[in-house]
């Protein structure tokens, strides 16, 4: 598949050493945040129109769907 001229030039100039200089080849882990922040933000959907009943229903749905076990909170 043909590449755009800029990509072809960039790829022809890259070596494994130049790539590893700019990109990590191993995951970064300092113990602070082992998973990315994942969660449900009710404000994005409901804005000001939220109440306790709706919040509890959402929490129950997150738990029952398996999202909680996958790391979502």
Describe the structure.
47% of the residues lie in helices and 0% in strands. The longest helix is centred in the last third of the chain and has 13 residues, at 52-64. The mean pLDDT is 73. The chain contains four helices and no strands. The chain is mainly alpha-helical.
Mean pLDDT: 73
Radius of gyration of CA atoms, rounded to a whole number = 22 Å
Largest sheet: none
Classification by helices and strands: mainly alpha
Could you give the count of β-strands?
Answer: 0
Unreliably modeled segments: none
Total domains, how many?
Answer: 1
Apparent shape: elongated
Number of helices: 4
Instruction: List SSEs in N-to-C order.
Output: HHHH
Tell me the β content.
Answer: under 5%
Helical content (DSSP H or I, runs of 4+)? 40-55%
Topology at a glance:
Blueprint lengths: L4 H9 L2 H7 L19 H5 L5 H13 L9
Q: Key terms for this structure?
A:
single chain, 73 residues, mainly alpha, 4 helices
Quick take:
The chain has 73 residues and is mostly helical. It has helices spanning 5-13, 16-22, 42-46, 52-64. The model has no long low-confidence stretch (mean pLDDT 73).
């Amino acid at each position: 598949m043909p590449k755009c001229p800029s990509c072809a030039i960039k790829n022809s100039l890259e070596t494994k050493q130049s790539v590893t200089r700019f990109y990590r080849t191993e995951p970064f882990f300092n113990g602070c945040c082992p998973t990315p922040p994942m969660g449900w933000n009710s404000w994005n959907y409901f804005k000001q129109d939220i109440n306790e009943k709706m919040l509890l229903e959402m929490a129950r749905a997150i738990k029952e769907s398996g999202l909680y076990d996958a790391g979502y909170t």
